[in-house]
Amino acid sequence: MVPRVDQAGFRAIELTRAYEQADRYLKDWPLWRMACYLSSPAVEEQIASLIRAEKPDLLLADQMLIAGLAAAAEAPQPTVMMCHTLFLRHIEEYSAFLEKASAMRRQAGFSSLPSVDRLWFDRDLIVVTSLASIDRRDPAPKGAEKVRHVGPALELERHAKPAELPWRTDDPTPLVVLSFSTGPEQGNVDKMQRALNALGALDVHVVATGGRSIDVGQLSPTANSIVLDAADHDALMARAALVVTHGGHGTMMRALRHGLPMLVMPGMAADQAPNAALVQEIGVGRSLSQDSGVETIRAAALDVLKTPSYAAEARAFSEEMTGIDGAEAAAEEIERMLQRGDSLPQRRAAG
Questions:
Q1: Average pLDDT, the chain
Q2: Residue 18 to residues 43, 116, 345, Cα–Cα distance (Å)
Q3: Tens digits of per-residue pLDDT, 270-281?
Q4: What is the distance between the alpha carbons of residues 298 and 53, in angstroms, rounded to a whole number?
Q5: Structural domains in the chain plus CATH codes
Q6: CB neighbours of residue 311 within 10 Å
Q7: Looking at the chain, which terminus has fewer C-beta neighbours within 10 angstroms, N or C?
């Protein structure tokens, strides 16, 4: 992230203590390294020292960076929590993740983390880069009035590049985009190969991307597919008829922006299984477990391709997202908060 921030003309300070205490975290959970850098006291201490040294007027903290939120909870400055996926709908899953991280922190011999209410709903504002129409919870939790939905922020990833496809642009054969995350912890070669084999028997073209999650050299492409380390998903989706995904919020929102139905095989991140359930609930696709067999995947993909209602519902969401720029809208929310008065930090300190 540091070079990207520098390139944008801002000042970046690297958090260098991310894994300083990793040897004290138990290794009995696949995401133990993530739990360390998101929750460890070393990260919390470094962030708190930066807040004291820099004396900012406002703090922005990502919802996943628990240590950052814990440091912000003890700081006098007003704080905006940034959530880059659905928030209200997934509170139970996020709470479970926070409790797991807190338990691992205690097992490592450190103090517990603050409660969900203290970390999240004591913030002055919660900016959610998703759609309000699908991020609902009834009854609304206490503090939900602080939530502002600004729409998805879908940047072109630095590693994305135009893909040279072996098929003509006017080829009427449906194109399927297959992507199961760019995160290494989500890597599953077998899952990708099963999906390739399932789609290999259909009259479709397939572009599969591995990102940083798998070595695509370990895959055996089918006759109707190509596999790439990375590609510009926006360019691919402009030509596609179906997206097969892990249910990450970014891929889900990008597919909806292009009006594309989905087949979701969720991975291990807290929001992916609920996102998969949402895809079925709103009628824009199907959900399968990530250990589904080839025949099951093939039947579900064919159903989504052949059932017009899935694409029709996806196109309706595409229309809803027309003209929405989540990054710009988020910046406007933050600027409005700053413009409410220089007394905000003093108000919090006095309180």
A1: 91
A2: 6, 22, 28
A3: 789 999 999 999
A4: 56
A5: 2-153+325-344 (3.40.50.2000), 175-320 (3.40.50.2000)
A6: 18
A7: C
